[in-house]
Fold these 3 entries.
Entry 1:
Amino acid sequence: MNATHTASPARAPGPPGKLLVGNLLDASRRENRLAHFVHVWQTYGDIVRLDLGPLPFFLLTRPDHVHHVLVAHAANYPKGRGYNKLKLFLGDGIFTSEGDLWRRQRRLLQPLFTPQSVGRFESHMRRAIDGLLAEWESAAASGQELDINQEMMKLAMNVISLVMFGFEIGARAREAADAFSAMLRFVSERSVSAIDLPLAIPTAANRRAQAAMDRVNAFMAEIVAERRADPTEHDDLLALLLAVRDPDSGAAMSEEQLRAELLTNFFAGHETTAQALTWMWYLLSLHPGVRAQLEEELARVLGGRAPTLADLPNLTLTRAIIDETLRLYPPVWGYVRQALAADEIDGYHIPAGAMVMVSPFITHRLPTIWPNPEGFDPGRWMSEQGAGRPKHAYFPFGAGPRVCIGNNFALLEMRLMLATAAQRFHLDLQPGFRPVLESVASLRPAGGMPMTLTPRTP
Ligand code: HEM
């Protein structure tokens, strides 16, 4: 299927696997998955074969590999069995579905996520940001240290629930929010587990996961029922999802599909953004020179007022800081596809059924593409430096048909948060604290991100 097929494609290099479980146990060691992949990339090169259980598994790191799998040959690389666990919880929503069902849902939802459409959510984002910063005033006054990771989770969850349902979930349903987090953790911890016990087997972990799932489903059903009984007009995602009609059949979404899309957007819409914002504050705290330049930009463009949509094109450093954060700490650090037919990439044989993984975290650090790859340098996004960079050298939001539908949403939320909060506070990392990368699901700091807040004098 690849025009560059060679007569007899070679076996990609990689570590020797142990019988049966192959390299699986190494790779699935909690908190260490990413470190393991970085290690094999550094040891074996751009394309690495690992024997993770019964299926061959390939780590692909170059931009042309990313293009091959996610764009040029996307039809041969569906999401596949790597997403089965997530499907148990999210159902066949836009993130996990494939084929015609996915195409239909993507076509229905896409118009809600254009740059213009997400602009209508600005007021919801502002409300959540203002609410959080009001709480920060008192924390700053008392010198109290905050876990910025938790704060960003709270913010992103409140933004997505305001946008979806018109209220802040933290205030109304703490328990449902916690159940949701528990559910996701369960899925991601087991997504590379060697032993795959069906959910119906009543182990303690399965029972807890089932209870969390029941709680979240009940919460979603309650909200939809309330909304259906409410005759007033609403301007949120739930109203849009209820109103959406298939352009061919004119049909509304089924109940099951609605549940899947609500869960999917709630899940996809907050965790990643929260992690990205956390790493952004961390990097700014380590780079006071960049922070000072940011403050200069904010003073020049905004002069102390809150940012609006019209200001965003003028906040170029603000945007570059976000782009650079997503380069160094892409929350979705790696994800998999499964080959339908046998293929050849870079002269190496990819058998039918093999799992392939692309990793923004690794590709964003290729020394042949990124000068000073580990350095935090927002300037690289504001100069000519990027001119010769290959297309998929940078893909924090994915690429091809399954590219993140919420990228405009996330970038808007992050820019509004950064431009508002950096005018009012300095966030400083607890002296001596070094975050440990945890890569169970999204890329997060294992021990949180303890920081102190200092109000900025106007
Ligand atoms: C910094 C924040 C975010 C990052 C880094 C991110 C990253 C990604 C990535 C890498 C994918 C593709 C995964 C794959 O191909 O397997 C994806 C898909 C998706 N994202 Fe995001 N995302 C972010 C924020 C959001 C937000 C705010 C929303 C919704 C409001 C959202 C909704 C989705 C959905 C629905 C998909 C599945 C799209 C499809 O398969 O058609 N994401 N995201």
Note: The mean pLDDT is 88.
Entry 2:
Amino acid sequence: MRFSEKSKEHLDACRFCWMCRHICPIGNATGLERNTARARALGLSMVARDAVPYSDDIINNVYECATCGACVKECVTGWDPVMFVKEARLGAALDGKLPDYILKLINNFNEKGNIYGKDNDPAIAAAGASAQSDTLFFIGEDARYNTPQNAIEAAELLKKAGVDFTVLDNEPNSGYSMDFMIGAAAETKSVMEECAKVLSKYKTVICYDAADAKVMKREYKEWGIGLNAEVKTFTEFVSGLIKDGKLKVKKSDMCFTPQDSFLLARDLEETEPMRDILNACGCVTEMLLNRKDTMLAGNLIMAEYMGDVMDAVARDRWVNAKNVNAKTVVTQTPAEYAILKRTKPEGIELMTVEEAVLKCL
Ligand code: SF4
Ligand code: SF4
């Protein structure tokens, strides 16, 4: 396993100071020291110095990170654990040491075009209004294969606003899940290039899932993958529809508590459109860890190989919501919606952004 000089610098410079220890959603859920950025840096720094082999245990530990960036934000010395985790995953792939549970997801991808190994739900493509428009509504792998009803409702909302859009039956994969599993491998870049070719036929791409918007706006750019279309997040787009009067929302007496996705709040620095939408629909009560300080509430890729831990992560977030007497938690991503839904306690509601808006039209 060879690390880049930049990653080695970040590994070696980690002070093992514990300042990011309390912020890791996985470490908090498991209570295990190995699930902290500090412990992972310690293991990988020994691998980088050839003091220990890149063993199965260290590799498994690398796949226990959600790459949520909470530790990056918190790091007092500016070191980036996400960067070396992604490089360590790439290294495992290049060394032929990927764990079986990751190989299984990659095989699913190669066979079915999605890591969940599921078939397309024809109801999703039927939700697209026009095959000829210059606006593509990009559903993404998580919603398409795990929460299709959410995608159908989101499309319904766009139709109510009079948006002329297309949903593809054979939507390409954005490359987010491959990037999560094996980082900047040639396979990941090739998936992204194929996707960019399709997206470039459109003027605007509205990403339902922030995970797809994140790779299109960040990784495509960083890796020189040309994309002519303008990429917008679903929340940014819907907020614009309300501001322009294309969606006439009536203020209700509902009170919403946003679950900020780290992909939007930290990676894309988008925090206010969701609040603008929810404030138009009712009132907003914040959790203590909000906006850039948000805490992950679930990851569907990790749920494939550490489902119990993902449930514990979501239950921790429900505790945060209950602590502020939240009535209705509103999510921005299909992954967080799916895992919060299966762990939802009694007496508190869960909604997507589109559900909240549809209730207030
Ligand atoms: S990126 Fe997130 S999951 Fe990974 S170590 Fe940092 S806080 Fe924990
Ligand atoms: S990543 Fe930063 S905050 Fe966390 S232990 Fe290392 S130096 Fe400290």
Note: The mean pLDDT is 95.
Entry 3:
Amino acid sequence: MTELHATSSLSWLETLPPVGVELVAMPVAAAPAVTLFPEELELVGDAVAKRRHEFATGRECARRALARFGLPPAPLLRTAGGGVQWPAGYTGSVTHSDAVAAAAVGAVAGVPGLGLDVEELGRLRDALLKRILTPAELTVLQAVPEADRQLLATRAFCAKEALFKCLQPLLNHWFGFQEAEVLLGVGVPERTEADGDQLAIRLGPGLTDLMPAGWRLAARCASGDGLVAAIVWVETVS
Ligand SMILES: CC(C)(COP(=O)(O)OP(=O)(O)OC[C@H]1O[C@@H](n2cnc3c(N)ncnc32)[C@H](O)[C@@H]1OP(=O)(O)O)[C@@H](O)C(=O)NCCC(=O)NCCS
């Protein structure tokens, strides 16, 4: 498990979002005691303490991100799909690992949808890779030096989770890991490379057909503190 020091700056993560998106992250070890609204408490009433803590920390990050747009604290309930019910005119995404919690928020007028994910490095075993990665992604992975494989695979996994969080609520469509491809050959990272890489994602036909005209997908990835983060968002093009 990646343990983050309470004073870890997470600056590599905060540089991830595009213009118009606010991201707030905090090491779980440094999370303040968060008071949830009664309606939110009901959502995690039966959950174990660890889940209640990550839920509360994610909500705290989300409220801080919304505050940067001038929004006052308010309950953030859950959609039928499991995501956050954002205030009218705003969208966002929440993620938490054992080490860090984060939320990204943007105004729908500029960013119709976004997804954020953080994953710990070194967690992906071979059996899981075959489920998560497409044959083409696996081929690229085999061609890179072994020392780089976990980073590359985690980037792809993280990007796909972020993609799901971005598109599932927008398209009201549940989809699997084989329905999108991260173009791993593009921008293969140096092991020491830290921040802000553009990622290219190719959607399968099932998803492409559902994407409204004028929507374009963009994605970025960064790593630090033994973690990988990805953000995927929709841009409107005229
Ligand atoms: C839903 C899922 C993406 C969550 O990711 P995770 O790495 O397990 O967990 P994270 O901590 O990063 O994210 C959890 C947050 O995701 C959000 N979330 C859950 N379901 C969501 C959905 N359908 N849409 C958007 N956000 C969602 C929630 O805000 C949740 O936090 P909260 O319950 O405290 O509010 C993941 O569990 C999952 O089901 N993945 C399979 C689907 C998939 O990724 N397919 C690949 C497509 S290429």
Note: Residues 29 and 66 are 22 Å apart (CA to CA).
